[in-house]
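Hi,

I'm pasting everything inline rather than attaching a file, because the server keeps stripping attachments. The sequence lines come first, and each chain or strand is labelled.
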Amino acid sequence: MRAEAIKGHLDGLLLAVLAAGPGHGYAIIAALREQSSGAFDLPEGTIYPALHRLERAGLVKSAWSSDSGRRRRVYELTAAGREALGSRRAEWDAFRTAVGAVLGASA
Amino acid sequence: MSPSAPVDAYLAELRGLLTGPRRQRRRLLAEVEDHLRCAVEAQVTGHASGGDDRAAARRAIERFGAAEETAAAHARRLAAEPVRGLAVLVGFATALFVALFAAATQVPSVAAGLPARAVAGGLAGGAGWIACQLVAGCAVLVLVRAARLRADGATSGALGQLHRAAGTIAGALTIVLLLDLAAFTRLPAGQGQHAALIFGLALAAAAATGVLWVALLRSASRARALARLAPEPPHDRGLAELRWALLALGGRLERFPVLGALASRALSAAAGVVVALGPRRVAAGCLAVAALVALGHLVGEGPATAGLLTTLLAAGAVLAAEAAVLGVLVVAFGRFLGLTAAGAAAS
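And the predicted assembly:
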């Protein structure tokens, strides 16, 4: 799937992956690819600025960890992030229902 | 060549391209390094035959995206960051500008005598009115632009327009501040309460102007870094829009005999000049006219014996400045709204 198609949804997708539990950048990308059955195949490098933006907005927080013997940044959803994810989901449900009602009706 | 050589080369290239605060650059580099090493390991262990480390590294880098793309995404985030604060400052500066302007016209010592002198009064009123339009137009542009930028992401073109509008407001505030200070130094005795008002407002305006300029320069330097990494093709749709408007107006005037034809030719020539000069020179010309009007405002407070010619010249200057300001706003909003000559003709 083209990167532009995901652009508006990337924040919501990242929050949804992090809702399952904390993770570092590579694990987040891997989960995104796996859960979308490979459909979300965007340039991986662009998710870091997106994660940094979400952190700046207070929706995720991060800290260095060296559990695996390698120093890496682990991201975690904040309470505000959980709330934002909830409203993203509600928006998406409403959008999906509306589009389905129109597109599905002609089938 | 070691198996990790492609990763090392990629990191070195990225290090050379990254912009912004050192801490954030180091953090991103550390994350990218961890990511690429994880990706290489995952690919090597994923292959039953053990896999080729260097081929795995190249595949991991390919999936990650070009260094330029990663650096541009990082620069885009950094450039979008100060925009919200800048929009809040612009809102505050605009409110302050209105307060300063209102105070300058309300205080009797400043306005006293001006209405008696037609030229000075006209210039002062004209300059103020024009400045108010310019500042209000720019403030709306900054606020709407900032809101759109948050939704669509930062581009160097959008940021450039936002900074030009914010810079105009900062410049207007600086000029009003200087006028206010000039009025303060000329305040006659017995105007203590007005002196306190003017001085307090000037102090607030000086602080706000300083903060606004600093925020603007910081934001502009980040936008420049983004423009270097992800340049946008130059487009002068706004100017084309102004040119089209001038030609259309000329076309309508053509049906009037003699004067209409002359006006149409003049507008057609003006349209040619607008395009030949380019956006920067047009903007500089507008600012120069506005500065002349402001100067007239100051000079007008001196001894004046307004003759007919002077009055006409002053009125002409005010009209020219008004036209210039409207031109700038049409260009700015035309570009912002993405209007085209065809679209305007259809409506």
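Residues 110 and 183 of chain B are 6 Å apart (CA to CA).

If the labels don't parse on your end, tell me and I'll reformat.
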